[in-house]
Design goal:
homodimer, 462 residues, mainly alpha, MgtE N-terminal fold, CBS-domain, Tetracycline Repressor, domain 2, 3 domains, 3-stranded mixed beta sheet, 6 strands, 6% strand
Chain lengths: 462, 462
């Protein structure tokens, strides 16, 4: 990496943009990755950034526009004319091109499409726009090299030479029949190894993994990861080859999925980052905090009515209330641990899943072990505390009994809820990570409180 | 995907292994990906699996052995002789080979290395064994195609033909000088496009991103992801080309990092999966649950001494204790939200980070907005509850005041702690995700409780 981004360079560039020093701009970026230039331009306003892009090689600036993140790009392209955008779309891979078009408003989108010179390209883009963003069809690029199974190797090489400019990363050539049905693949390595006059038929590999245009992007990512693929062809229902997905797009899907999961687990709505506006950041957090507060108010209400109606002995209620933090923390920890393990196995599906009954049976055993260990620990701890006079229960060992029995029940129930909830959410097509989020944990808290005081009532500690 | 794993096939295979029906085994797996065979064999015991591997093509069974996960492989290879393992290592890529060797005990490892026929291979493997598993050197494979900058294209093609069998995915050829220093790369596409008698010098690309052997694997993953790379060359301090890392290994690193983060966030030690033994599963969960319990006991102890020493008015303590769940839940939610956002920006480092002071200032503003909204909500809610007689505070509006003032302080403090903790953990080279784990959240709970009752004391509600 020969180029390093520094604040000094940033300021120098700012100055030279002001001076319209085109020479400086071109020289500076001659040997710089488009990725680094993109990162740098995030620090500049739209007008300055456009000035830079207008004055460097168009194939580099096209890549920069592809690389920009959605929010920034949508804003940035407002200062571009339909014609200028169309000129970029002529160069940009169709998958990125379709993303850019889908970010424009309806009117501008149509203007841009009609301004694209390459009619093949505009047809492709219109086709890609029909797919949802999060399915295979929305990830694929139309650009690929395919040859007919009846061709000779040298015909294929001619084609590669002709198409090399349009298709960026060629690792292999797809083999189809006369109707365009995908039959297999030949790697560039095999093409180099083969003799010029041999037939594609003799050298191609007919074992090929492909996916349907409608497959969900997470499944696409799982398949590419499982089978260690760098490219994955996309076909329609009749098996016709339509496009290909490259691993770099799927790596982004994997990272986004993980980030989304963490945000759900930590109760942040929508996609926020640390450098977003203060208003957006507060807004993304408040809904879940409010849910937590509402849950807490319910809790207070519940405890209050319990105290008023059942606890004639205030001293006992006071002793019990000392352990509310312990009960709530354990319920939360057990619930999140359980759902985390289930979420993990939901995201790595295996061909041979054990049945839900078997899973629950196992969860039951694990929680019995944990429940027994924890409640014994608490029971003995409290008896010891009491014996040495560190805690004054009022009604001595009864509190210890109530706390440890309810702790055991809570470990059992939270394990069960933590296990079932993500499975149900997944079945209903929600993200199972929601089970570790604030809504479920708040519910779990309230259930734990209820169990605690019901156990107290049942054991007659009142 | 022509092959689908079913329970029927599994049982049929089990039977045919018993009958030693080699023909059935070979026919069944003729057109099956090694990945699917691996998944199937997880359902069989070591002896049956070995019988299958011994009777299919050795290049397929070698891939299956590379694909096995560490725990299973370590166990499985116990029934293999050093000679048998060495025969596989002759075929397996050096990065996977080194992983396999590092899983064997010292004695067997040496036996295997001396049994490897290809002396070049055993030298490479010994070299790779010196690197830690989690740095670039531990991820790289030695196998690659490199040519001298002074060569002609046809010399290079001859070399590719010769090495094609040893190097699996060739997308590009590395260009080095006489001393082996990495200078650049030529893609196979460019080789096909170039004329036979042109020089490497004229067609190679001298802009190349490479990493040092000692770079941490997470950084390697970030670079490959950022620059959309499928392969990444690894060099030593003098710039000499030593090996290459392929994207499939890095995809695994990205997934493992995300899984590890989720486990840390949900308080599960070590790497467990749903299908591990009950004992292992309980064991992985107990440490953090015990920490939670100890925290809860501290809480009880704290509340108890508070009650005994300061609250002459039991009724007030009772009213306040109704809101312990609300206080704790909010502290937890705010803390986890804050650390989650910081963890995210720590895992996507940018060249232009805002300073810690700026970040804290922003956090402060966000938490003031959230704090004001939440405490107003609670204050008004409680006054309304009280007015309509749903809650009986004893000392009416004073409780509402204490709850909402302490809630505000807790939102501020938990935001601050949630922001600082991951930054400090990261600086100390711990995983910042620990900040969302049970240890920190338990501490956060206790601090919130303390603030709550200290605010109560200060506002004289006692």
């Amino acid at each position: 990496m020969k180029f390093s981004l520094t604040n000094e360079f940033k300021e120098k560039l700012r100055l030279e943009i002001k001076n319209q020093n085109i020479d400086f701009i071109q020289k500076s970026f001659e040997n710089t990755s488009y990725v680094d230039i993109t990162e740098l331009l995030y620090e500049f306003d739209s007008v300055d950034s456009k000035y830079v892009l207008d004055n460097i090689k168009i194939d580099i600036s096209a890549k920069i526009i592809s690389e920009l993140d959605e929010d920034n790009r949508q804003n940035f392209l407002k200062i571009y004319s339909a014609n200028e955008i169309a000129r970029y779309l002529d160069i940009i891979d169709s998958d990125d091109g379709a993303d850019i078009l889908s970010e424009l408003n309806f009117e501008k989108r149509n203007d841009v499409i009609t301004s694209i010179k390459d009619s093949e390209k505009s047809k492709n883009l219109k086709e890609l726009l029909q797919y949802d963003e999060d399915v295979a069809g929305g990830l694929m690029a139309i650009e690929l090299v395919k040859c007919n199974i009846n061709w000779k190797i040298n015909q294929c090489i001619e084609l590669i030479k002709k198409q090399a400019k349009n298709v960026e990363n060629i690792y292999s050539v797809y083999v189809t029949d006369d109707k365009g049905k995908l039959l297999g693949t030949v790697s560039l390595k095999d093409i180099i190894l083969a003799k010029d006059n041999s037939s594609i038929k003799d050298v191609y590999d007919d074992y090929i993994i492909s996916v349907d245009t409608h497959m969900n992007q997470e499944e696409v990512a799982q398949i590419m990861q499982k089978y260690d693929l760098t490219v994955l062809p996309v076909i329609n229902k009749r098996g016709k080859l339509l496009g290909r997905i490259t691993i770099d797009d799927v790596v982004d899907v994997i990272t986004e999925t993980a980030e989304e999961e963490r945000q759900i687990m930590s109760g942040i709505t929508s996609d926020v980052e640390e450098d977003d506006s203060i208003w957006k950041l507060s807004n993304a957090r408040l809904p879940w905090l409010v849910i937590g507060i509402v849950g807490g108010l319910f809790g207070a209400f519940f405890l209050g009515s319990f105290e008023n109606n059942y606890f004639k002995n205030n001293q006992m209620f006071l002793s019990l209330s000392l352990f509310i933090p312990l009960i709530m923390a354990t319920a939360g920890n057990v619930g999140i641990q359980s759902s985390s393990i289930v979420i993990q196995s939901l995201s790595n599906p295996s061909a041979f899943e054990s049945s839900v009954t078997n899973r629950l049976f196992k969860v039951l055993l694990v929680s019995i072990i944990n429940g027994v260990v924890l409640s014994l620990l608490v029971y003995l701890g409290l008896i010891a505390f009491d014996y040495f006079g560190y805690l004054d229960f009022g009604i001595y060992s009864k509190t210890a009994l109530i706390v440890s029995v309810s702790l055991f029940s809570i470990v059992m129930l939270s394990s069960l809820l933590g296990t079932i909830t993500p499975i149900i959410l997944d079945k209903l097509n929600f993200n199972p990570a929601l089970a570790s989020g604030p809504f479920i944990t708040t519910t779990n808290d309230l259930i734990a409180l209820a169990i605690y005081f019901i156990v107290a009532l049942l054991l007659g500690g009142i």
